[in-house]
Every structure is written in C-alpha cells, then in structure tokens.
Amino acid sequence: MAIEINGTATEAAPRPGQCLRTFLREQGNFGVKKGCDGGDCGACTVHVDGTPVHSCIYPAVRAEGHSVTTIEGLSNGEELHPVQEQFLENQGFQCGFCTAGMMMTAATFDEEQKANLPRNLKGNLCRCTGYRSIADAVCGSHGHDDGDAASRAGAGAKGSGQLGDNVPAPAGRAVVTGTARYTLDVPAEQLPGLLHLKLLRSPHAHARIVSIDTTAALQIPGVVAVFTHEDAPDRLFSTAQHELYTDDPDDTRVLDNVVRFIGQRVAAVVGESLGAAEAGARAIKVEYELLDAVFSPQDALLPGAPAIHGEKDGETARISRPQNNVVAEVHSELGNVEAGFAAADFIHENTYQTQRVQHVAMETHCSIAWVEPSENPGEDRLMVRSSSQVPFLVRRTLARVFDLPEDRIRVVAGRVGGGFGGKQEVLTEDLVAMAALKLRRPVQVEFTRTEQFTATTTRHPFTIKVKAGTSSDGHLTAMKVDVVTNTGAYGNHAPGVMFHGCGESLAVYKCANKKVDAQAVYTNTVPAGAFRGYGLSQMIFAIESAMDELAVGIGMDPLDFRLKNMVRPGDDMLSTNPEPEEDVFYGSYGLDQCVALVRDALERGGQRYRDAGLDDLGPEWVTGVGSALSMIDTVPPRGHFAHTRLRLLPDGTFDAAVGTAEFGNGTTTVHAQLAATALSTSASNVAVRQSDTDLVEHDTGAFGSAGTVVAGQATLLAAQELAVRIRAVAAAFAGVSEAECLLEDGAVRCGERVLALAEVHDAARQQGMELAAEGRWGGTPRSVAFNVHGFRVAVNTGTGELRILQSVQAADAGVVVNPRQCRGQVEGGIAQALGVALYEEVRVNDAGKVTTDILRQYHIPSFADVPRSEVYFAKTNDQMGPLGAKSMSESPFNPVAPALANAIRNATGVRFAALPIARDKIYLALKDAAASAPTQLTRI
Fold first, then answer.
1. What is the overall mean pLDDT for the chain?
2. Which ranges in 422-461 belong to alpha helices (H)?
C-alpha cells in the first residue's frame, strides 16, 4: 500500500527498518527536521491521519495506507493555515529549526489544549525563543506588540519598516511553510553521487594508536573509503575560529595518532549510504596503547600529572606550559590587594563552581563538500555547505589545513539551526573537505545528538576562588580571584574564554585593588569551546554572588551596594591591566536606568502579590528577591571585520550582500532595517543575501554579539554612501542641485519633481554607471552594553521545590533596531540561562566518559519550565553603534544565574556556590542548614 504524502500517493517504498522522518526527507519534504532521532525534541513532528507523531521514532512502514501531512502540506496552496499565520504574525521563532514541528503539534489543538500549553507542548523543544512568542502564536495573542519595549527604545514610526519598527523576519514565510533551506536541505538531484561519512570514535580517554586494520570495513558493500591519521594532513590547527587564528593554540589534527578524550575521531568511513558507512566504522579494528589520563584541572596541575600535549613546543603551538597542562594564564595585580583587605570592615571568601553545559542547537553540526570542476587545470574549487557561524573563517582554516589558495574554496552557510557559539568551530568541514578532495564526489556528514554531547564542545567549567572586602559604608576595598578553567582535551577558545571571563566581570566595579590569577588547563575530557557569554557568565556568577554577600555582611541593600560601586561614565573600566582598553568607551550608559527598572518592577511585583493575597504560600514556604548585573564589550577585541555590497535594482528595490550568517540572531532583519533607514525606504524593499564567501570580501563572523554593531555598521555605511550616489544621479537627471534632492520610499523628490527609483536606475545605466556602494567596518572603537536581572522566588523548605514568581530583566541595548526581535533575544537568553542555573549539566564519569548523551538525560528548558519574563530597555543612544544601537544577543544570559542564586539566598539564608542549583541540592542544603543552625527562616 502506498503512503499518501500531502495528498499525493508516493510510489516509493520505505526500506526495512526505516523511520518515517528519513523517508519523508528522501521524498523532498525538508521541513521535517532531525533534532534528536529519539522522540525527545519534536522537530520531526508530522500528522498521520491527522494525529501528530514524532516521525523519527515512527516506522515508515506503519504509514503505508495512511495519509501523512508535513509542514509543506499544512497550508492550502498560497493560503496559510491559521497556526502558520499566527506564528508569522507573532514571530514565534528565531532560528526556526524547531518551528515546523511546533506548528504541526499546535495545529491540532482545541481551545482546551491551548489553555494548557505546558502539558500539551511538552514534546516540542525550542532552544532560541524562551517560548513566550510561541505561546502568543499558538494562542493567537499579540504579546510582542505591547508597545512598552518600543517606547523605551526610542523607536521610530510604527510600520515604517525602518529603525525601531517590529519588522518581521524576511525569511518568516519560508520558515512557517517549511521551505527555508538549512544545511542539509539539498535535493538529491543537485548532488548526484552523494556519499555519507561516519566516524569511528575513541573508547579511551588517552591512548596512542598502534595500528588500524580497515580490511573488513573496506569489504562491506557500499563502503567507498576509510581515512585514518595516515591519510590526514599533518598540519596542526585549532578548531576555534577567530579573526586572528593565533588567538588559539595549534594543538589539533584532522585525524591524530593520539586520542585524548573518549569520543575523539579515530577514523572516517565514507559510504554510498549512511548504513554502509556505519557498518564500516563498526568493522574497523584498532590496537591502542593506553596512556595515563587526568580528568580534573586540579589534578592536571599537580606535579607528575600526565602531560596531555607534552610533546608539543609551547612557543610554536602557542601553549603557555604544555608540560604542566596549562594552555593559557594571566597573573595581575592592580593596587595593593593585601592593604585593601586590611582596610576592609567585612570580607567575603568562597569558592564558586560552574558546570559543563551543551549548546543544544536544534540543528546538529553538519556539512557537505564537493569539488566543482574547472575547464582550466588546477582551478577546480572545493565547495562547502556548512552549519557555521563563521563561513569566511572556515574557508581560511581549510586553506591552511589543505594547503589551498582561499580563492579555490567557497563556503556557504544556509539558514543555520542555532549556534550559541558552538558553531564558531571547524568540527565537520575538515572531514568532508578531505574526503571530497580525495574521492572527487560529494560527501556529507551529520552528527547525531549523542555526538553533539560527547564529541563537539561544551561551556568551560570554572572553579573560582573569590575574596572581596568592603568598608562598613559600602565601598569595595579589594577584590581577588583565583580562577581555574577546564578546557578539556584541546585548547580551542581556552585563552579567549579565560581572558574575557576575567575582564568585564571585574571591570564593572570600581575598586582600587584587584588581583587576578587564572589558568586554562587541559584534561582528558570532552573539549570546551565558545558558549554564549564567552566566560563572562561563569565569572559573573561568582562576582555577583560575592557582591550580595558583601552587602548582606554590612547590612546594606544589595542593589544600593551595586549602585555605590558600579562604574559610571568617566570611571576607568579595569580588570587585569592598569590602563583601560584603548578602544573601549562609554558610547552610552544605561546601567543606572537598568537597576532602577528592575528595582521598580520587583517592587510592583511584590505589591501585586500582596494585593492578591499570595505573599504567604504556607508555613513551609519562604520567599525572596535577588538581582545581579553585567557588563559586556559590544565587540570582541583585536578586530572584527565586515564588508557589505549594496546596489539599486532596476525595479527600484535594493540588493544587499553581506557575510554574516543567520541562525536566529536576527541580523538579516537588522541589515534590512538599517539600510532601509538610510535609504528612506522600507525593509521589505531590501533583499539580503548572506553567508557566502563569494558574495563579499570578508566577514569575521556572527559571534561576540557583532551582528548589529559590526556587520550592521558596514551595511549602514554602504547604504549612506549609496543614498549620496542616488541623489547625485537624480540631481543631474532633474537638472537641480543635490541639496534639493531627498530620498522617499521608492523615489527621489527633486524640488517639485518626483523621480521613481526605477527611473534613476535607468538614468545611471544609460551613463554606464551602476548605482552601488560598499561599506566596511573593523569593529573599533567599541562600547559597552549592560543587563540587570531580578527574580522573586518561593522555596519550599520541606521539599526543596523552587518557584519563580517573577522574572524581570532590563537591558541597555542603545537604540533598539527591532524591539520585538530584541526582546526575543533577551527572553531566549533568560530561558537558556535558567536551564544552566537549575538543571543542565554535561556529566562526565570517573573514566572521562560523558553520561548525559541524549536529550532525555540532559534537561533543557521545556515550555513548562520557563516563566514569562518582564523585559525593559534603557533609553540610550550609543555613539559607537549604527544609528545608536548596541549588541544584545549574548549579554542577557549573563546575570540570570547569580540573580537566581541571590534570590534563593535571600529567601533561605543559604548560599549556593555551585551550579546547577537543582531541587535535590536545595533540599539537602536546607536540611543541612537546619541541622547545623536551626534558626527560623524569614519571608522577605
């Protein structure tokens, strides 16, 4: 019996054991996504006879004789299904990878089910949005159009399609109809002869490969090739991607003869099918010589510990002390710390710990490579399609590793299904490039969710010893931190994360005496890498916890203590250097506004609870409030570059070519709005092409919150120059001065005459001129952005249950380009940070093996876990950012965990110094506290 797909019977028959997800994708239904292949995330949801099912665990053979509807079939031709309309209107997505599955589930809801979304959306996960916009979309409300964010941002005219308007995402319709193309959404006919690559990975934490026998693997039908360290380039590099590749140690090979963590690549098998490649990987026989391993950074620093990269030359590889497992380190003292502590009336000292966390982008790491032949010998081009935040840096790395000129490599990123820093790496592209160059056929690799957990990267775990002192009137006298970070088996991002973490977390406070000792340390565990906040969130957890303890110790309100000590315009921002960063300035300052906004919101929330009679939940419940602040430089240091090409098209619309990738960060919309503002048109008249190394000269990439303030600045400069050129052509054509010419939407007003832009384009063409302009920006000078978060919580002292009664964040984002989109970034950052604060942890056992290797073992926030947060924007106008804007994608994450820990401390009197603060930890800590000091807990 045939399977009916979207109303049409298919002649194809599923293979034995094939799941419905892969069958549907083979029939061209690319809106059906893979997020887990375990029935955990819901990205693959389709309807079978009108009932939503997770197609990744639904046998395809069971669909024979039944009707299957995918997202592509949900609409009626051009007429969208109501749920698609609502997701489009409320922008219930960011990266959009989970959106098709979310809509397929919600499309079946009746009113009763809509009234209980925490239960009925529990099978669909989103990593980007924080769920508020999804709730608004499912219920058909308009929560993102409440006007508050827009008014506080100093937004422009509603509906102008320019600065300050809630311009919808340009790819919105494609996202909600399942036609947006992510990395692997390529029809088979476009890549004839596509091969699949699978990896054999190390079962040992530290071993030398003695021999690899590939004989049996090569005899398996469908196996085309097996690659080992003997076939791979011998060049060392770093998987981390930065504008300066020298920022990271060269400690990695494509395939190595030494494995340093469980899950490291050992061999790559290429097959005609995924099944053949997997069978080939299982058939390889490897003989290992086991080496001593070390799993904690504290043990790795001990004399005699195994030197994980001890054979490398530290100066050449840029490793601080390879024999001692130290990748990078910083030691500094400003002022006299001991004198500062001697002058203190109260000193807080504690050790804080943050855990490994996985990015859990819904689209796993994946890429395709092929060789595009040329008629000229030696001019074939390597083509790579990758889920990457940094396509231009990927091209540079592949050129270095494979000794190719950069112009013979083209890297394209389609729409990327989430990043959070995890795709600021080369983890798949080198493998498919190696295979494609040798086999001259297209090769694809797609990581499983288990590979994401065990073999990509995590957030760096930090151990932070803090000692801080204050005078009785609330002035900081000394701050001292001793920091050890665990970079895992490789040093990708280790120096940058350590240095950045020890930067703005300390610089936000005025204190004459500061001392920092920090080391990034190798261990035989899964590598760490770039993660949202880039070290700041770990350090801010410790510093902001300490600030609360100092305030409590002298009997001062914690927000008043922060107001007294936080930097203000004119103050030097100092952390490890005696002089401030030469290119970092107060482009605008809204930290004081953010503190006031959060304080006012918490006071209003407390009054609401009192008025409703909810301030007393019962004898076992205690309540408390807590807050934390954060500061972040708006651009990474030492250069971050972008290039934009903008041109007027014959129909009077504009084409913008940019380098930055779109993965839910909203930069595509920002480019269109900035260009539209400068050109006096609407964002809908600006088509953005992006993330293709053939489009523009260079773009450092979408990381470090640089999408708006760097790439957006380049686009704004190009648009401003193009506006000048359009006016010049129009003036000459109309016979008036340029001063008399003003751009209007779709036209130029030249005195009394109005010229359509199409006429201006034609006039320029007749003169042999193209109306186009370019913009470039190098990421300097830089400004600072601020975030303050506050919580009101209730804790059950008998069970450890935690309830978040109120969540509020205030952000200084400068002039907010798109209030709805920016608020979505804040809400998404809060949701991700709550998971990190409360339950997310990549656990590694005593043998160095990751044990939380599927989603049902690693709890990311679901709909029911995330409270609706109040979001406010300070009213500032930044001198450095494009049209006054600042960055706001990483920073909302940073103050959340310490604010929550401070609220719990305020409620219970117990300081939780290690993340995550899980319910069982709360229960046990309260039990221990009651046993050691049975005092009456106070409700505040």
1. 96
2. 429-439, 449-455
